[in-house]
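seq as requested:
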Amino acid sequence: MSKPKHVGILGMCTRVAPTNMQKIAELTEKARGNRTTAAFAEACGIHPATMSRILNAKFKKNLSDDVIAAIAVNSVNCTTATFRELLDAHGLMIPAAEGKSAAEQDRLYTDYLNQVRSSLEMSHKTKGDKFEQSGARKEALRTRVQEIIQNYLIREGYRVARGDREIESEAELYSWYADFVLETNALESEGIDKWAFVISEVVGPRFMQEISHFAGLAYFGRPAQKGYRITLITTDWITFYEMRSELRLLGPIYDSISVLLVNTRYGRVEAEYVIDRECETAHVMPTGKEDSEIDWQEVYGVPDDAETK
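struct tokens:
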């Protein structure tokens, strides 16, 4: 007989039988109480569609241990008996409880329920902390980049004010929000008075997907008709120069779209590439090095005797 497998957050348990989906459905219905499916799903951290399938016994495979633990902990009547019933329906048992008195078994399952509850709470806190840290980092980057660009435009003698982040569009489907929008006279030669900036944290070839997305927005939404230039920002210089080479192949377009390289460490606007327009194209920021000025062998570590472009 093979050794029982220890699993997931319920690692103290061993699997002795398949999950009884019908029993799980009945116990989950009791655990839900008078809450809506959506409300109970939210409490458990489970997608509402998943919770609906559980309640209707639609799952054909075993549920994850995390789901069973969440249902138990968030039960309207979270008791040791409820927890034990759910484990039993899930096909799990605590080996240490086997052969013990009823009172000792209750103690083991009660202690274990408290451990599971603490583990879930810690997991949720950790996820929340990571989300907050990620959000704080992005907000710090947005603030830093906006400050650098505003300072550059002001030093060049242009008027600058903060604008509404919602981008107006001819096609409602393609309305979207920029990271920040500046109202400025820097692009008045193009008949544009609003400059929308979107910060991309994608580095490398996948950056082209971001460009394609915003080119699509421009094609369908025609933001230039509403007085916008759309600029996608990267802080990686290799990405910028490779994408500039790709974008030069697009030729003249109707809308005002550019890619901008910003050095957040030194607080500098390094280079902007503006895709040629069908009308006059305004160049406000530095263009940066030309491809012929970049030592690509040094960048990519290409041997001296290797063929180069």
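The chain has two domains: 14-124, 156-300.
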